[in-house]
C-alpha cells in the first residue's frame, strides 16, 4: 500500500525523522491521514509588484555581497501574525475567518522609510508606524486568538515593530557590522496602499502566497 501521492513534505519529513527510506516505514505511519497533518502559515501585508522588485534587488545584493540569503525565502512583506501551524483539515476555516475579518476593513497606507536593524543579525526596510497599521495588527492578533485560538506568546511580550526584512539571521555578526555601516544612513522611501491581507504557506523550503483577502471586499 502506497500513500505517498499528495503527501509531499510530510513524506520527506517522516523519512528524515525515522532515518529510513519510505518503503521501509510501516504502512500505518506511511498512510498517516493528510487531514491530520499540519501546515505552517503566517499572515502579512505583501508589497505590490514594483516595490517587491526593488526590495528583492536589495535582498539579492545581501546574498551576493554578504552571503545572507535567508530573506529570499519569502516575498517582501510586513508580518502581522507570526508563523503558526494548523491542521490541513482546518485550512478552510482559517481562510473563511480571514475573509470575514477583512470584509469590513479599509485598505491602509504603508510607508517604507530608510533602514533599521535587529542587531546583530537582521537588517530591514523600516516601516512607518501609522495608526492604521498598528490598529490592523492589534485587531488581527486579537481576532485570530479569539476565533481560531492562534496565539503567539513571544509577540505578546514585545512591541510591534513593522518591518520588511532584507538580510536575515544567516547574516554573520561580522558581516552585519560591515553591512550596517553601509545601510544605516542609506535612503529608502516607498509608499503604497495595502489593499489585501495575505496568507503565506511554507512548502518545506520557502514561504509562498497561499491566499489573499481583499480589504473591504
Query: Beta fraction of the residues?
Result: 25-35%
Oligomer: single chain
Q: What number is the mean pLDDT?
A: 88
Outline the low-pLDDT stretches.
1-18, 22-35
Say how many strands there are: 8
**How many angstroms separate the termini?**
46 Å
The main sheet orders its strands as 2-1-7-8
Shape from CA axes? globular
| Major sheet attributes | 4 strands, antiparallel
Radius of gyration: 19 Å
Could you give the order of the helices and strands?
HHEHEHEEHHEHEEE
Q: Fraction of residues in helices? A: 25-40%
Structural class: alpha+beta
Q: How many H/I helices?
A: 7
Short description:
This protein has 217 residues and is of the alpha+beta class. It has helices at residues 9-18, 27-30, 49-66, 91-103, 131-148, 153-156, 173-183; strands spanning 38-46, 77-87, 108-118, 122-127, 163-167, 189-194, 196-202, 207-214. Residues 1-18 and 22-35 have low confidence and may be disordered.
